[in-house]
Specification:
By secondary structure, this protein is of the alpha/beta class. It folds into two domains: about 240 residues, P-loop containing nucleotide triphosphate hydrolases (Rossmann fold, 3-Layer(aba) Sandwich); about 200 residues, Glycerol-3-phosphate (1)-acyltransferase (3-Layer(aba) Sandwich). It is built from 16 helices and 17 strands. The N and C termini lie far apart (about 55 Å). It binds 2'-deoxycytidine-5'-monophosphate.
Length: about 475
């Protein structure tokens, strides 16, 4: 079993990799520590910044040794000299991007990393594991997190080592390093097309570990992730942790756990990525601020894996508000009329929304919806079928449950209030917008007869909306 774990600085890779290695009985290789070690030696030899080209020879001649530690950063030695702490200091951190962009340094270290991988049963952590070093890895994960969260984590990590550094300084350092690591010509920080992206912002360490273990589960000697997590028979034989984000209907052994995320077919290329990042980082903060959005029940949302999000519908802008409140990208099924205004169609297309022709059996829309779930992503639906301006909730169409039934995934019911008042007489208004996520609606057992199963799914969904409605009416 080879796991490739990549991601930007401070995304939590080391912590996660170490723990996953322990639980699955794998070795762990911190490739960042290797680049840091070479950087320290290059600094000491006076090769930075003008003679970095000589650092490759230095790397090749250096007897570098890494020693894994159970609950701490990897120990690093050059011969008998220990450099574990020095390589985490600011001089190294500020220069490591420049040294690691050197082709000769990369060639030497990539070779060493491949040798380690060839011994098998290892989790390799870095920037280019999934794309360059072990492109055939059994599992590829790309961890991300917001820049603020990454800086906070780095600050805590440094504090534990007795180093104080301001959050502003750390944000500046990480931003610079991100830009350098992603922009370099050789082996840039990039998610492999077949990697699974996990945004760890707001997730607990245990949740992220659970998610990675779950991904490895089906490929790890057929062991289910639940067993890998907790059973004494597992290689790591250790602690129990919930498998995060696994909705009960979607067992981790499902093939969709090996599927692409995000959906490359829908979000692809630098412009799409830029649009996506913009839409999902700048817009949510602004929308939340302007409409004093009150969001509750986010803990009900699984952080990874396929899920359906079903919301009431009172305004054309509902997807916009729901997308801003939801911690993951939602692929909305939206009425095809929106595409008749070409610029709007282009943008929402890029953001992974897809059209449905209402009033007819739109097979393509159904296929797209199932594809979204099949890829382990989030499908957004409005089960009333059309907008209801005057009531909080119209009639729920039972047909919408077909997607969760077909794919065996849970549905998160969502009640939005206030969105019907954000545009009045074609002018924007700023009422308070409320978004409430309800507990996941489970899919009825696959053992039931089909008609009974469909009826039960609809019943559960309607009951979930009624619960949300009465809970929020009581609070009003
Ligand atoms: O993971 P880290 O912060 O310890 O990594 C230090 C630097 O090393 C990082 O800024 C980029 C570089 N690096 C790399 O270029 N390729 C890798 N596989 C790992 C790290």
């Amino acid at each position: 079993m080879i796991i490739a774990l990549d991601g930007p600085a401070g995304s939590g890779k080391s912590t996660i990799a170490r723990e996953v290695a322990q639980r699955l009985g794998l070795r762990y290789l911190d490739t960042g520590a290797m680049y840091r070690a070479v950087t320290l030696l290059a600094l000491e030899a006076g090769l930075v910044p003008d003679r970095i080209g000589e650092a490759g020879a230095l790397a090749a001649a250096t007897p570098l040794r890494l020693e894994e530690r159970e609950n701490d950063l990897t120990r690093v030695f050059v011969g008998d000299r220990e450099i574990t702490d020095e390589i985490r200091g600011r001089p190294v951190t500020q220069n490591v991007s420049a040294v690691s962009a050197d082709p000769a340094v990369r060639a030497v270290l990539t070779e060493k990393q491949r040798e380690e991988a060839a011994r098998g049963d290892v989790i390799l952590e870095g920037r280019d594991m999934g794309t360059v070093v072990v492109p055939d890895a059994d599992v590829k994960v790309f961890l991300t997190a917001s820049i603020e969260e990454r800086a906070r984590r780095r600050q805590l990590q440094l504090q534990a080592q007795g180093v104080t550094q301001s959050l502003e300084e750390l944000i500046a350092d990480i931003t610079a390093r991100d830009a350098y690591d992603s922009g370099r010509a050789l082996a840039p920080l990039r998610m492999a097309d077949d990697a699974i992206e996990i945004d760890t912002t707001g997730m607990t360490i245990d949740e992220v570990i659970g998610a990675v273990v779950a991904l490895a589960g089906p490929k790890h000697g057929g062991e289910s992730p639940a067993a890998a997590n907790g059973a004494p028979a597992s290689a790591a034989g250790g602690a129990t942790a919930p498998v995060a984000g696994l909705s009960p209907g979607s067992t981790p052994g499902d093939p969709r756990w090996g599927a692409k995320w995000p959906l490359c077919r829908m979000v692809r290329g630098p412009l799409d990525r830029w649009l996506y990042r913009f839409a999902y980082s700048f817009i949510p903060a602004t929308v939340r601020f302007l409409w004093r959005m009150e969001i509750s029940g986010v803990e009900n949302v699984p952080r990874v894996g396929a899920v359906v999000v079903a919301s009431n519908h009172r305004s054309n802008l509902d997807p916009f508000f729901l997308g801003s409140a939801f911690p993951r990208q939602i692929h909305f099924m939206a009425k095809a009329e929106l595409w008749s205004f070409k610029p709007l169609g282009w943008v929402i297309d890029k953001l992974g929304t897809f059209p449905v022709n209402r009033g007819e059996a739109d097979r393509k829309a159904v296929r797209n919806a199932l594809d979204v779930l099949g890829a382990g992503a989030v499908l957004g639906l409005f089960p009333e079928g059309h907008r209801h301006r005057e009531t909080d909730l119209g009639e729920i169409r039972a047909g919408v449950t077909m997607f969760s039934l077909r794919e065996g995934v849970t549905t998160i019911p969502v009640l939005m209030r206030g969105t019907d008042r954000v545009v009045r007489n074609r002018l924007p208004h700023f009422p308070r917008v409320r978004v409430v996520f309800g507990p996941p609606v489970e899919v009825p057992s696959a053992g039931l007869p089909r008609s009974e199963r469909t009826a039960l799914a609809a019943e559960r969904l309607i009951a979930a909306f009624q619960d949300l409605l009465s809970a929020t009416s009581r609070e009003k």
